[in-house]
UniProtKB/TrEMBL annotation:
It comes from the Eukaryota. Keywords: Calcium, Disulfide bond, Glycoprotein, Hydrolase, Lysosome, Metal-binding, Signal. The lineage of its organism: Eukaryota, Metazoa, Spiralia, Lophotrochozoa, Brachiopoda. It is found in: Lysosome. This is N-acetylgalactosamine-6-sulfatase. Belongs to the sulfatase family. Residues 26-350 form the Sulfatase N-terminal domain. The gene is LOC106161119. Residues 1-23 form the signal peptide. One of its GO terms (molecular function) is N-acetylgalactosamine-6-sulfatase activity. Homodimer.
């Protein structure tokens, strides 16, 4: 069981602006879900309608139907969010094999490079107080600690909540409060694998509410990055929510997160910071179809997490800011998590860095005035640009789901969906004649437009120019996801000495990470 001091009420939210008494400097909260699918919310069509608070948040704000992550996997997506740059630029990719999804398990050597600028660093310099709650996932070694990259506070973990482990072959994942660890998953912070019961969402939510209260009282601007992971396997929910959803355990987790959203929005109103608070709700990638009935729904879109089809990268996204974002808006703006970098800095009146390419665009005019901005969306998998969307057209230059060997083992990123020559189990190069889809008429990417048609040639002429310009101006960063070493795992996290909880580490033995897909 968790210590009693962690048995706290549940809350959840993405963005907070500052009290009107504090002037016009806005506060921000980004609420980033983990593996939540586009079709998981009632407002996006989930038939059980079990997300009343998020549905109401959308009714009071803006629903962004065409919003994307920058990668179909957790770590690169999160690195792109915080840097405003594609993973191929910020280093969150691998060159060990072609078009492979890499991330940051605890044996990874790399992490967020010091050369990268995270927007919390710029907010911090401008007087903001920043807190991350939940999963960091940009490297667990001391030099990658979030408090060294723009955050003032942290309550959460550096890696996914996999486990339990024996602390001999692999250590359990540490949980941090500030600079130091305060325990480990499955030891001090329980997740019951058989039942799915855990109080983690309650703990993370109370951390958010307390932070909002403190900052409202201080009348200083703040950024809250609420990066919780209840919908990532192994999925969990607290006892009051277990067994309450028509969708099983995954639905229980979603219902608890929805309840938390309502509580945090209420906290903003209670402390009179709602009118100066931008709240953005989204997810790091699509629902994990490999998780079967314990994973999310990607609605009408093809495939899911790990793929560059729509189900892998189109995210359920809501923006909320009373008296600034008009209620009941639906935006078809092509958006990306990377856009948070220039958008938040623009709203905070902070100049963008000029010494590097920023892939995100400023969406403040979209949020505040409903303006639509022409821009492309690039779909990367590892070191390869797999697809591009421009307007309503999406061109696949490469297709791949996952290999036949994995498929025979029951690992399927496109469960129950087989589109000939599209959901390929080998890496298929279409560069000489990309597969083209109209994602308005054909949301499921099932019916390629004929290459002989006028429509194909007209669309590809525009897309080809965008791709040429992109590749001409692309300078890949140093890959951070190439090397692994069991000696760098969470044997001795910062602060373990104070608790007497350090573990003996094996000798360093670096090797090239193997990424199967």
């Amino acid at each position: 069981m968790l210590p009693k001091k962690w048995h706290l009420p549940v809350l959840l939210i993405l963005g907070t602006f500052q009290s009107s008494a504090c002037g016009s400097t806005p506060n921000f909260i980004i609420m980033l879900m983990d593996d939540m699918g586009w079709g998981d919310l009632g407002v996006f069509g989930e038939p059980s309608k079990e997300t009343p608070n998020l549905d109401n948040m959308a009714a009071e704000g803006m629903l962004l139907t065409d919003f994307y992550s920058a990668n179909p996997l957790c770590s690169p997506s999160r690195a792109a969010l915080l840097t405003g740059r594609l993973p191929i630029r910020n280093g969150f990719y691998t060159t060990n094999a072609h078009a492979r999804n890499g991330y940051t398990p605890q044996e990874i050597v790399g992490g967020i490079a010091d050369e990268e600028i995270l927007f919390p660093e710029l907010l911090q310099k401008a007087g903001y107080r920043n807190k991350i709650i939940g999963k960091w996932h940009l490297g667990h070694r001391p030099q990658f600690h979030p408090l060294k990259h723009g955050f003032d506070e942290w309550f959460g973990a550096p890696n996914c909540h996999f486990g339990p482990y024996d602390n001999k072959q692999r250590p359990n994942i540490p949980v941090y409060n500030g600079m130091d660890m305060v325990g480990r998953y499955y030891e001090d912070f329980q997740i019951h694998r058989e039942t799915g019961e855990s109080n983690l969402t309650q703990i993370f939510t109370q951390q958010a509410v307390d932070f909002i209260e403190r900052q409202a009282q201080s009348q200083k601007p703040f950024f809250l990055y609420w990066a919780i992971d209840a919908t990532h396997g192994p999925v969990y929910a607290s006892k009051p929510f277990l067994g309450t959803s028509r969708r099983g355990l995954y639905g229980d987790a979603v219902k608890e997160l929805d309840s938390a959203v309502g509580q945090i929005l209420d906290a903003l109103k209670t402390h009179k910071v709602d009118d100066n608070t931008l709240v953005v709700f989204s997810s790091d990638n699509g629902g994990a179809m490999v998780s079967k009935d314990k994973g999310g729904s990607n609605g009408p879109f093809l495939c899911g997490k790990q793929t560059t089809f729509e189900g892998g990268m189109r995210e359920p996204t809501i923006a909320w800011w009373p008296k600034h974002i008009k209620p009941r808006q639906v935006s078809y703006q092509l958006g990306s998590l990377m856009d948070m970098f220039p958008t938040l800095l623009s709203l905070a009146d902070i100049t963008l860095p000029r010494d590097r390419a920023i892939d995100g665009i400023d969406l403040s005019d979209t949020l505040l005035n409903g303006k639509n901005i022409d821009r492309p969306i690039f779909y990367y998998r590892g070191n390869e640009m797999m697809a591009v969307r421009l307007g309503m057209y999406k061109a696949h230059y490469w297709t791949w789901t996952n290999g036949l060997q994995e498929l025979r083992q029951g690992i399927d990123f496109c469960r129950g969906e087989n589109v000939i020559n599209v959901t390929t189990h080998d890496q298929r190069n279409h560069t000489s004649q990309p597969l083209l889809f109209h994602v308005g008429r054909d949301l499921g990417e099932r019916y390629p437009i004929s290459p002989d048609s006028i429509e194909y040639h007209s669309a590809m002429k525009k897309i080809s120019k965008v791709v040429r310009d992109h590749k001409t101006n692309l300078t890949p960063g140093q890959p951070q996801l190439n090397w692994c070493d069991t000696g760098v795992m969470n044997w001795k996290p910062i602060g373990c000495e104070k608790l007497g909880r350090c573990l003996p580490a094996p000798s360093s033995n670096p090797y090239k990470c193997v990424w199967m897909h």
